[in-house]
Amino acid sequence: MNTCRNEISKDCFVVPGKMALPNQYFAGRVGSKFIISLRDSRKILGVRCPKCKSVYVPPLEYCEKDMTKIDENWVELGNEGVLTNYTVVNYRDAHLPRKVPYILGMVLLDGAETPFVHIVSGIEPENVEIGMRVKAVFADKTTNTILDIDHFAPVEE
Amino acid sequence: MKRVAICAVAQHEIKGNIWYKRFQDMLLDILEDLQGETGFTFGGENGVKNVLTCSDDFFDARTISDNAVNDVVGAANYRGEQKMAQEGLNGIGYAMADILSGHDDVIYFAGHCKESLSASRNQIANMAYDPFYCRCLGMDYLNAAGLQARAYMEKTKITPEQLAQVVVRARQWASRNTYANEKTQLNLGDVMYSSVLCDPIRSLHAYPVSDGAVAMLLASEERAYEFTDNPIWITGFGNCMDDYFMGRRDLAASSALKKAAEQAYKMAGIKQPRKSVNLMEVMDCYAYQQPMWLEGLGLCDEGKGGDFINEYGPAKYNVNLSGGMLAGRPLMIGGLYGVAEAVLQLKGQANEHQAADVNCAVIQSTTGGAGQFQTVVVLER
Ligand SMILES: [Zn+2]
Fold first, then answer.
1. Residues B310, B323: Cα–Cα separation, whole Å
2. DSSP string of B340-351, one letter each residue
3. Cα–Cα distance, B90 to B374 (Å, whole number)
4. Which residue of A8, A105, B18, B318 pairs with A120 in a disulfide if CB–CB is 3.0 to 4.6 A?
5. Are A106 and A116 in contact (CB under 8 A)?
């Protein structure tokens, strides 16, 4: 075993770098429709497979279970649902969109059959409970992403 | 059936920040170690003509990351080179395909990853997500694991003390492994009361930032004995991809791992892994993953990860005697370090952490958020 044969670091240095590569990325036909609906109508859409009845949100062009083309089969889901899981992000980092601690939750919308990840806000992390009802709070300014829903907040009882 | 051997392995010591050494130098050192052990050369009648590498563009901050290492893996001067831009354990499948297809009979395989090159490995993992559904939420492998950890803990009722035992044990074994990164010894309280990183994951539940490089020489059965007296045979390989969206998976069940393991066990002719497997190397980036992956691999009953720990399951099956990911291994090549460890154990060369009577070892690795993609390899002596 000969590893780390040369560890002399006198007069050695590292070069700092930063990658910033402006780019674009096609949202896709079903993705575009989904986000336009959030942005312009404040409605959360999914697609339902006529064959196996699966509901996909975010939407898919083809059912991943039976490959049926489902991109015409839109359904409107409720803007409310149930929190099925969560984590509290407690580390700082440049890619995180919110001040920490913030909550990432999995939200099962009324009418959907699988949850998706989004930010939960308007509640202290220690009070969050799996099974609580949450509702979409839409963003004032669009980013043309799923953040056109700004976050999910607890439903006032 | 034709067999493929791993003739020998070389590991670079893993450390948290090897800033003073280029990854090219790290690769060159392990190449020379491996040549010293096996006597293999490049080119000519009997030399290596095809090379496999594993690295990641984002970690290396350049595209075509294999471009930068051609000369130190012997691929310069008109030789074949393929890059595994994926968790390195999948390269074992690539190398097997090269040899079993008759494309070549000896393959040199080297992987590197220096997590310390990036300001934040979480930022790199964030770039693994699509820009409009997940990346913008700040998703990365750590908070994806946070969600999975809660799902697993809710399902299994595994306790904070049991999770702490996994970490304490990893550090104990790491202290016996020359190549391991984090050898600081811990007690249960250190882990249980370490700061909350991504609830329910605490800072000592997470693997430390790590730099490393691994290499190995693979050969057909006909040629393996030119390089070693005790080749280790790759008898099983399987991998499986789960759904990208976490809401469309059973987060606490690791279905993809079950399928990958099923393929690998079938190829190896293993019907009862609990009877056949003597050693496990699993990619436990976070403490909850060790019992969870062992459930997926069939070593532990579904949902019983906590009981498995209480009943000394990890000791019984020689789980991660290297220290595993929890003692520090870089992403990308965590699975290759697992192979290196298993090969040394099967050859009886693991020195201070050698287990007795190891005949069959299983290595598991994963990449993608919360174990999305799973790979399993079976090695036998
Ligand atoms: Zn369907």
1. 19
2. HHHHHHHHT--G
3. 9
4. A105
5. yes
Q: Residue A70 C-alpha to ligand 1 middle, in angstroms?
A: 8
Q: What gap in Å lies between CA B379 and CA B254, rounded to an integer?
A: 22
- Shortest alpha-carbon distance between residue A133 and chain B (Å): 17
The amino acid at residue B274 is R
- Compute the 3-state secondary structure of chain B and give helix, strand, coil in percent, each to the nearest 5: 40, 20, 40
Contact of A38 with A143, CB cutoff 8 Å? no
For residue A92, with 0-12 CB atoms within 10 Å meaning exposed, 13-18 middle and 19 or more buried, which class applies?
exposed
Beta bridge partners of B108: B51, B217
- A157: pLDDT strictly greater than 90: no
Q: Please tell me which of the candidates B123, B196, B245 has its beta carbon nearest to residue A90.
A: B196
pLDDT at B129: 97
CA distance B85 to B150: 30
- Please give the pLDDT value at position A131: 98
For residues B308 and B111, what is the distance between their CA atoms, to the nearest angstrom? 33
Residue B82 confidence (pLDDT): 94
Is residue B116 within 8 Å of B211, Cβ to Cβ? yes
The answer, for A111 touching chain B at a CB cutoff of 8 Å, is no
Compute the residue count for chain A.
157
Distance between CA atoms of residues A141 and A44, nearest Å:
17
- For residue B334, give how far its alpha carbon lies from the nearest alpha carbon of chain A (Å): 18
Residue A3 has pLDDT above 60, yes or no: no
Tokens of A27: 């949202």
* Burial grade of B352 (CB within 10 A; 0-12, 13-18, 19 or more): exposed
Measure A96 CA to nearest chain B CA, in Å.
Answer: 4
Q: How confident is the model at residue A9 (pLDDT cuts 50, 70, 90)?
A: confident
Would you call B131 and A19 a contact, using CB atoms and an 8 Å cutoff? no
pLDDT for B366? 98
Average pLDDT over residues A82-98: 98
* Helix B289-296 and helix B255-268, axial crossing angle in degrees, nearest 10: 50
Model confidence band, residue A126 (pLDDT cutoffs 50, 70, 90): very high
Please list the ranges in chain B whose pLDDT falls under 50. none
Fold annotation for B4-119+209-226: Peroxisomal Thiolase; Chain A, domain 1 (3.40.47)
| In A91-143, beta strands by DSSP E | 102-109, 116-120, 133-138
